[in-house]
Amino acid sequence: MNKAQTDSATEASAAPQEERAADLCVVAELVEIQMSIARATQQEALQAPQPGVDYCQRIATVSRAVRLTLLLKDKLSRQAAERRKAAAQREAAQEDWHALRVRLAMMAAASEVSKDEEEADRRADEVCERLERPEVAELVEASRAEVAVAALCRRWGYPVQVKQWLEMADEALEELGFIPPEDGEDDEDQPEPRSAANNRRPKPPDTG
């Protein structure tokens, strides 16, 4: 379970991390270009000054550009660190609420395939009852969320749309305050994991 959630979080954040790394490389190149201009200006001022050129003003302009670029680089670095921290917190919360996350994912699947509210309620009750069975509880506990949801979907005849069901489950967990949002905003009132949560029968997520 730990490895799967780690792999999932890594895949989800790989592209944004690559983009931020590329941004930092661009900023670093800008700093080097600006420093090259500053060195060339200094060399010209000392060795072959041109009439009418205000070298002090030119150096001041380049210096200001360097300072602003370094500030931008620092901001991007801090944002990247904050996002990594938020991703780690979200991953840890998903692990803490693993069983509830799988439960909500399966209830989302049951709700999506239901034709009306009555059928959705019946299927929700069936999902909760089945999840209480020892062999199913053992499968959920021993498996990654993706593996458990895929296996249960096949076993119970639901569409194997694992990513969609888990995304809906995560949205529900966010709304309930069990996991932090992906944008990195911390929730200081986030509840502590409780084993009793596995025995709840939460309502299927409202899919509109």
Fold and architecture overview:
This protein has seven helices and no strands. It has helices spanning 2-47, 55-96, 98-113, 117-131, 134-142, 145-156, 162-176. Mean pLDDT is 78; it is low at 1-10, 186-191 and 193-202. 75% of the residues lie in helices and 0% in strands. Helix 3 runs antiparallel to helix 4 (117-131), helix 3 crosses helix 7 and helix 6 crosses helix 7. It is mainly α.
Q: Helical segment tally?
A: 7
Report the strand count.
0
Strand residues, percent: under 5%
The overall average pLDDT, rounded, is 78
- Category from helices, strands and their pairing: mainly alpha
Q: Which regions have little confidence, pLDDT < 50, spanning 5+ residues?
A: 1-10, 186-191, 193-202
Quaternary assembly? single chain
Helix content: over 70%
C-alpha termini separation:
31 Å
Strand-and-helix sequence, N→C?
A: HHHHHHH
Biggest sheet overview: none
- The radius of gyration computed from the alpha-carbon positions, rounded to a whole number of angstroms, is 27 Å
Shape category: rod-shaped
